[in-house]
Amino acid sequence: DLLRNKYHYDGVVCTDWGVTADEGAKPNVFAGKSWGMETKTVAERHYKILMAGVDQFGGNNLAAPILEAYTMGVKEHGEAFMRARFEQSAVRLLKNIFRVGLFENPYLDVENTKQTVGKPEFMTAGYQAQLKSIVLLKNNANILPIKTASTVYLPKKYTPSLKGFFGPPSKEKFEDAISPALAKKYLKTTDDPAKADYAIVFVSNPNSGSGYNSEDVAKNGNGYVPVSLQYGAYTASKARAQSIAAGDPAEPGVTNRSYQNKTITALNYQDLKTIKETRLAMKGKPVIVVFALSKPAVPAEFEKDANAIVATFGVQNQAVLDILTGAAEPSALMPFQMPANMETVETQSEDIPHDMVCYTDANGHVYDFGFGMNWKGIISDGRTAKYVNSINKPKVTVANQMVTLTCSSPGTKIYYTVNNATPAFAPENEYSKPFKVGSSTTVKAIAKRYGYNNSSLVTYTVKTNL
User: Fold this and answer.
1) C-alpha distances in angstroms, 364 versus 55, 328, 335, 350, 431?
2) Is 221 a domain residue?
3) CA atoms of 403 and 148, how far apart (whole Å)
4) Could you read off the pLDDT of 255-270 as tens digits, one per residue?
5) Domain co-membership, 46 together with 163
């Protein structure tokens, strides 16, 4: 109703892959995802989805369950209704084919393809997009850009052994972070840190796995382990004691998926070791960390070991080198928050944006959503004016142990807690008047303007009687 009626969307809706198929025998077996409909038949799942207004089934090429679902609909609603329902989806799907000319001419025009694929202006636009996605997080003493006459040390890049959906685990390996041929187009390279002016360390964000471990089951656990955003050992002491989700038929007897007090270390812990070993080997000479991110991470473990940090998001190494050497200037902003620690990750709310305590580096810069630097310093432009701190943080004032919360952004409500929890946007957390606290009380507050945005989280600890 929301999509079709309120927003008048009449395009194709396709399910996620495998939602109509049966689940695997265990949660770690890659198979169907019929969550909530596990006891229904495959055809019944198709019927339920069709009646919800979906047009296409991801991962299913079989006509039989769809035809059976049609028969179910005829019994419940009649032939005319179901024919109209199927024709409605058929029209949506055919329109996409008509619009790109594939109905009249489904054959590939090789010459036209040659003129499109690899078209210089398209390639240029794509490459510029890569450059504009690279975020400069740290640049101590303006060591970047690197002078092209410099000599750099490039330690090997580590890839851990990983288990995919299919086949045996991959083998761990050390390999060139960038191809020597590409590196030499920009800089002189050496395998000896003593001969280098700079070191460039390429690492990936911490990868602790999928959050499920069969070895934990073998030890009479529930199988669920922390997903950590740090490299080193992490014990989830602040995780929920009772999980939100549980009761999957594929794991009978498991009524709680909590991983509280379990410990995990990132599979690529070697990345952290490489940074620290390189720092020692360079004996005070600059170390630049190129941090490939596919999700947020806790930089606290290595930030002080790096003179410069560049965050990348699936770009070519050529683009990275263009930034490092000044052929292009960094202009991107962080698309998410970088947490100060795993405690703030565990206590943040899944449905509230900007509610983590963000990491503050040695220069006092906060790695919050929308933070980024260029050669002149912290970026402040039209983008940051529009998207960053569009709702100002609440101000916490304490006098005689009475706390007053204010926000300078008009039309906002303030929500707070004094139990170290992230304040949910619920009536019981709404601020209305000053309140009394004791010493060592932590006040957390967020300002929200409904239908627009909310502020970042403010944390204030009353350390002494005021």
Assistant:
1) 51, 26, 20, 27, 30
2) no
3) 55
4) 999 999 999 999 999 9
5) no
- What does 351-368 look like in DSSP terms, one character per residue? T-TT-SPBPB-TTS-B--
Note the pLDDT of residue 464. Answer: 64
Asked if the bond preceding 145 is cis, omega within 30° of 0, the reply is yes
DSSP class per residue in 112-179: HHHHHTT-HHHHHHHHHHHHTT-EEEEEGGG-PSPPTT-EEE-PPEEE-----SSSSPPPPEEE-SS-
Cα separation, 445 vs 395, in Å, equals: 9
Verify that 380 and 432 share a domain, yes or no. no
In the block, tokens 């580590």 appear at 158
Residue 250: per-residue pLDDT: 84
From the CB of residue 352, how many other CB atoms can be counted at a distance below 10 Å? 17
CATH code, 174: 3.40.50.1700
User: Residue for token digits 């796995």?
Assistant: 209
pLDDT tens, residue by residue, 220-259 = 999 999 999 999 999 999 999 999 888 888 888 899 999 9
pTM for the whole thing? 0.86
Sheet holding 435-436, edge to edge: 395-399, 402-406, 435-436
CB atoms within 10 A of CB 251: 20
Point out the residues of the chain with pLDDT beneath 50: 466
Rg (CA), the chain: 27
Query: Residue 209 has which token pair?
Result: 């796995």
- Spatial separation of the C-alpha atoms in residues 369 and 337, rounded to whole Å: 5
Which amino acid, one-letter code, is at 85? R
Dihedral of alpha carbons 412, 416, 421, 426, sign: negative
pLDDT at 16: 94
Q: Residue 295's domain spans which residues?
A: 130-207+266-387
Q: Are residues 273 and 183 in the same domain?
A: yes
Q: How is residue 247 written in tokens? A: 């009761």
Which pLDDT score is estimated for 105?
82
Cα–Cα distance measured from residue 183 to residue 259, given in angstroms and rounded to the nearest whole number: 44
